[in-house]
Amino acid sequence: MLFQNGRLKVRKLEDKDKYLLTKWLSDPRVLEFYEGRDKPFDFDMVQKVFYASEDDVGKCMVEFNGEKIGYIQFYKLDNKTKEDYGYVTENIYGIDQFIGEVDYWNRGIGTLLVSSMVDFLTSEKNADRVVMDPQVRNIRAIRCYEKCCFKKVKLLPKKELHEGVYEDCWLIEYHR
Q1: Which residues fall within 8 angstroms of residue 19, CB to CB, at 6 or more apart?
Q2: 33 three-class SS
Q3: N or C: lower Cβ tally within 10 Å for the chain?
Q4: Residue ranges of the chain with pLDDT lower than 50?
Q5: How many CB atoms lie within 10 A of CB 100?
């Protein structure tokens, strides 16, 4: 287990989790803001992206009240990304997440998840900043992140190809 905060638990991804990832990443409601409805994942794609890649991403399962409900990942920003974003030498982490079980949306769990991950990264990984780049149109997520003390830093025009259109994103950061 990576950490626990009350009824929320975050742990490293296990092989058995690939079935739920496949379910979540083929649900159009989840894909509307994560990856895109034009790119549903099948079992092989989940295997390739989440299990076969040799990267330095901390890939984690999110549980709430003992139920697996979502996914979160964290990674240290490389020098190129830091430069692109206008940072210099600080210890900066990025995070990405989604709640795959839609019955758990709009219940404050995303806020608990993001704030708990920020606490973990600042205390355990000594992160100076934590950043994300949500699409500008993802108003619900941005409100959640602002509740967790993230601030908009700059607009990233046409940053992400999503459903055939390059979407504007916000670079947002938590700075301790």
Answers
A1: 43
A2: coil
A3: N
A4: none
A5: 21
